[in-house]
Amino acid sequence: MYADNTPYSQPGRRSQFLSYAALVFLCLIACATIAVPLYVIRPFRAQGATALAVALSVRRWGPWLAPLCAAASIPFMLRIWRIARRWTGRAPSAILCALTILFAVLVQINIYEIMFHPVEGLRFVTASRSKVLDDDMLLAISIGGQSRAYPIRTIGYHHIVNDWVGGVPVAVTYCTLCHTGLVWRRDVNGRILTFRLGGINNQNALLRDEETGSFWQQSTGVALSGPLAGTQLQLVPADELTFAAWRKESPQGTIMAPVARYESEYETRDWDQRIGRYPTVIDTGKTGIAARELMLGVVARRASRAYPLQRVIEQHLVSDSVGGQPIVLVVGPDGKSVRCFSRAVPRLAVVPAFYRKPNPAPQEAAPAASGSAALFVESATGSEWDFRGCAVSGPSAGVCLTPIPLTRCFWFNWHLDHPRTTVYAR
Length: 426
Prior knowledge:
alpha+beta
């Protein structure tokens, strides 16, 4: 019976039931646009390929689908209000409609950028004006004669810095959970992309570009989902150096200034030790290597090899070959910075061996042309080389070795991206 004693008609009951069924369905769909990605994309939960693909698709379409559900729920609510005369019949429809609208609003929010805010008002200062400590690590790049550095404790919080260096659009990225810092070009197929933090996949950050909504893996630069799926970003050579080492080499360079609003939330100096105690979602037990052991990863001629960071630092210099490519890893005078070079010396017919110079010291006198101390010696001509990979004395003076990209990261992440990798001295 209605409140005015008009009896329910059978068609009225059926229409109300179907309207409620539609409201529940629309509310559940709108809820799923939030719940599915939040459930799948979590930092301490492993992401399978299928589950991640579904979650990323929902992330892409959710901001469109949920508002459509909200708009579609309103006519059903109004129909119920026309049929039902009592508040007990009307109120649930209003609640369901309100929830659907709420989900449509919430799905527009990037929860990952609430936890880790994007950079606002990107600023740079000269090395002499920076307050960064000498032994703090930086991600440093040099393009077109312009040298720029990004403190890891700063970009580790923001995860992504969209920038231009030497006229080239770059995305400077850092994921603290996997200890991986990489720089990628932002120009793809003639379009400049702007990247935002898009989530996480097996404890490695996901990037999302604003232009197409595609999702990209930070550690590989490959688009996993969206219109650009399968596209590979171009890697920009970058060095992970101490501030002191970078400042000595690039006194005219500029370094990213902290964003005052978020500076109090930046990582502490012992951040890597703290992260090193976190659980991982990738089981590396069969490899016999701790999941969060720090590695230096090298890819050459489609082969890959991981070098335990501590072992390299202890040895100071490591000569090796990866995929038939002769390489040398060199530890800087600060004992923390490491670079990798090809051992093939221009103008030499043979590939020489390199040896650490006995008792190299930062204060050693060096040729005026270089201003750098010699750290290692080449066997073929006896030329001495500095941390930049340039010969500072001997017949090869002025010649520089070809740099090879070096990735510093936790073992679990390197092994996940390079399942066929070999490991040095293991």
